[in-house]
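In this section we walk through a basic example: taking a raw amino acid sequence and producing a predicted 3D structure, encoded as discrete structure tokens. The instruction is simple. Fold the sequence below.
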Amino acid sequence: MPLPLLPSGYALVMAALLAISGSVDQSENRDPYFTPTAAKSTPYMPRLIIRNMREDRAGNIWFATFGGVIRYDGKEFANVSEEVGLAKRRIFSLLEARSGELWFGSITGGASRYDGKSFQKFTKTVGLGNNDVMWIFEDRDANIWFGTGNGASRYDGKTMTNFTTKEGLADNSVYAIAQDPSGRIWFGTQGGVCSYDGKAFSNLADQVGRPFVNVRSMVVDRSGCLWFGGQEGAFRYDGKTLATFTAKEGLLDDFVGSMIVYRAGNLWFGHPGSFPGGKRGGASRYDGKSFKHFTQRDGLSSLPVYGMLEDRAGNIWFGSADAGVCRYDGKTFTNFSATNPPRLPARPAQPRAID
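The resulting token sequence is shown next.
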């Protein structure tokens, strides 16, 4: 899988920090970038690389991290990776299905479904496209979609169906999935953006006259417009026209690694920034007319923002690469992580193959 267009000299480190995994057809192997936590439970969020966050219906916040699955109940941050069946794995993706079951996607370990008491594993051996699961999404028909290192997999509760470039997918490395009001499923991939209407795939590049690469985030706003982002900025597609947003239009930085639609209608964009130090990292908020930037000068705990979440109280949570997690209530930032510096993921003894 191609790396994003970044300055030379630190590709291996960025493979860990930006979580660019090789799309290698593999069995469940050791994850060389897994970062163990010092304790199973702590009042502080460990300073791990955080890829994603979700709030369940009980109000718990779940974190997908390089140290596994961490659950925050309002008092303690507990590593529950063993309980959900994904011990010693980086976790990239999270979902609470409408059924109440929780889904977790890992790197090298496939996916796991957890009902609060027991788990069920889904790997390549039982039909999953690949054991690297970067995204999990539930469509309006309750199908569970997995964005993997070897295409997209759809699970209807009984059967797994896989889609790759052979079926029309833009690229086999799938990073983000969304559904528009018409029911069309959209995929953000390393090689572009495409959609599936239940019968065939359509490549957005053919419709708007330009290609896309390394698309890392995707949402549908309240008006039904598709937003997606990656190393080339953020884009809005209304079904006919494409609008492009980069630093020239007001974004803090061109690279958009995450995005959420806030209940007030604003869009938030997370920027991982460059390595080292996360230069140009932070967050951008867009109200439909102008952008507001958030960095450490405003109270953000770290510049490299890797994931965001709006909780039921309207707070915005920011997950970082080097300082754990912080929360913004609209006025003040609260840091939930210990002040000790993080331990970066160890370099693997032998580099993994990258397609």
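Looking at the output, two observations stand out. Confidence is low (pLDDT under 50) at residues 1-26, 342-355. The chain has one domain: 11-335. In the next section we compare this with other chains.
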